[in-house]
Design brief:
alpha/beta, Rossmann fold, five-stranded parallel beta sheet, 5 helices
């Protein structure tokens, strides 16, 4: 039995309070070949789902999160994920309508994998996500 992972094994969580953006990202995942996609409407719900998966010895391979959301924003979610021992370095893409240097710098310090500015071009978003997924698949 091979230990090699395939794109069919990749698990992604998409976090955005706007259903339309979750649907766009879900469609991008489908086009790439990712079938294990979970959605959350805010950072709090996402963090709960991420923790529950980790407790069940499962995990998300990629987190794609909007920044501006109620209850817990994307930057707070990123900080919580980076602060959780078992989750630490999971690849993380932040999405926002903001192109604020302060937020980007703070996110870079927390080691985000990439950043998308809304409204994003589907081809650009798809290429960025594909690159990260390829890195995930190449990591032992």
């Amino acid at each position: 039995m091979s230990d090699e992972r395939s794109i069919n094994d990749i698990r992604v969580i998409i976090v955005d309070d706007l259903a339309s953006y979750r649907e766009i990202l879900r469609e991008i995942m489908r086009m790439i070949g990712v079938t294990h996609v979970t959605e959350a409407v805010n950072g709090q719900e996402a963090f709960e789902k991420i923790i529950m998966a980790a407790k069940g010895n499962e995990h998300f391979d990629l987190i794609i999160s909007d920044i501006n959301m109620p209850k817990m924003n994307g930057l707070e979610l990123l900080k919580n994920v980076r602060g959780a021992h078992k989750l630490g370095k999971v690849p993380f893409i932040l999405v926002s309508t903001e192109n604020e240097k302060k937020i980007i710098i703070e996110a870079l310090v927390l080691e985000i994998s990439d950043y998308l500015i809304k409204p994003y071009d589907i081809a650009t978003a798809s290429n960025k996500i594909k690159k990260i997924i390829l890195k995930i698949l190449q990591t032992p």
